[in-house]
Amino acid sequence: MRIIGGIWKGISLKHPDPPLSRPTQERVKKSLFDILAGRFKESRVLDLFSGSGTLGLEALSRGAQSVTFVEWNPFCMKLLKENLKKLGGIPGITCLEENALKVLGKLSKQKKSFDIIFVDPPYSKGVTTKCLHVVGKYDILTPDAILVIRHSKKESLPDEVGPLALFRQERYGETSISFYQMKRGMV
User: Fold this and answer.
1) Which of 4-18, 22-36, 99-113 has the highest mean pLDDT?
2) What percent of the chain clears pLDDT 90, i.e. is strictly above it?
3) 88: exposed, middle or buried (Cβ count in 10 Å: 0-12, 13-18, 19+)
4) Positions of E strands within 37-97
5) Who contacts 142 (Cβ-Cβ below 8 Å, separation ≥6)?
6) What is the biggest distance separating any 2 CA atoms in the chain, rounded to whole angstroms?
7) 43 to each of 65, 68, 73, 145, 146, how far by Cα in Å?
8) DSSP-based three-state secondary structure for 22
9) Dist. CA 32–CA 180, nearest whole Å
10) Residues 121-139 pLDDT 10s
11) Which of 19-23, 138-142, 149-153, 154-158 has the lowest mean pLDDT?
């Protein structure tokens, strides 16, 4: 696993082996970041179920202002911190070793808001749709924010959840990536 673009392009990252994680394949990551091209400059990113941080670190490499990593697994968090150390002192980093669904209420109370939210929950655990509902419940999205969810192609996600509307979906083998944003008129 390596960073594929930006200032740290080519740097290898540590990641846990399956079944503890499902590292995002390089072609999927490339497509995802091509779709989001130009959105990272000065953005605030939330990386839920971050594992060893590959998506958030890719965003930082491409110009994100800050990334909040949320990962409950201590081993994954250890690898994430090793990856951060490898890249040197990076300002704007927050690492929270907490439950991804429960931390959203805390972030909302702290008046945190994000331009891009990556959600990469375990497949087939019923967490993906629940996460969509929880993100939509809290005021943590900027008006033009994008919520990116990586999930199994077998898992069907709703077109709308609360203030969020699906605007794009891509499939790569067994993986789907769904893109949500605030419904117009709700900002």
Assistant:
1) 99-113
2) 62
3) exposed
4) 44-48, 66-70, 93-96
5) 44, 113, 114, 115
6) 43
7) 5, 11, 26, 10, 11
8) coil
9) 13
10) 887 677 888 888 899 889 8
11) 19-23
DSSP 117: E
Q: Smallest Cα–Cα separation from 177: which of 1, 29, 53, 19?
A: 29
Q: How confident is the model at residue 85 (pLDDT cuts 50, 70, 90)?
A: very high
CA separation for the pair 100, 98 (Å, rounded): 6
Residues 6+ apart with CB under 8 A from 57: 3, 8, 13, 67, 83, 84, 87
Q: What are phi and psi of 183, to 5 degrees?
A: -65, 140
DSSP type of residue 24: P
Q: Higher confidence at residue 109 or residue 23?
A: 109
| H or E stretch covering 141 | strand 141-152
| Neighbouring residues of 178: CB distance < 8 A, sequence distance ≥ 6 | 148, 149, 151, 157, 166, 168, 169
Q: Nearest 5°: CA angle at 51, between 109 and 92?
A: 50
Phi, psi of 67 (to 5 degrees): -140, 130
Q: Can you tell me which residue has the tokens 């594929």?
A: 4
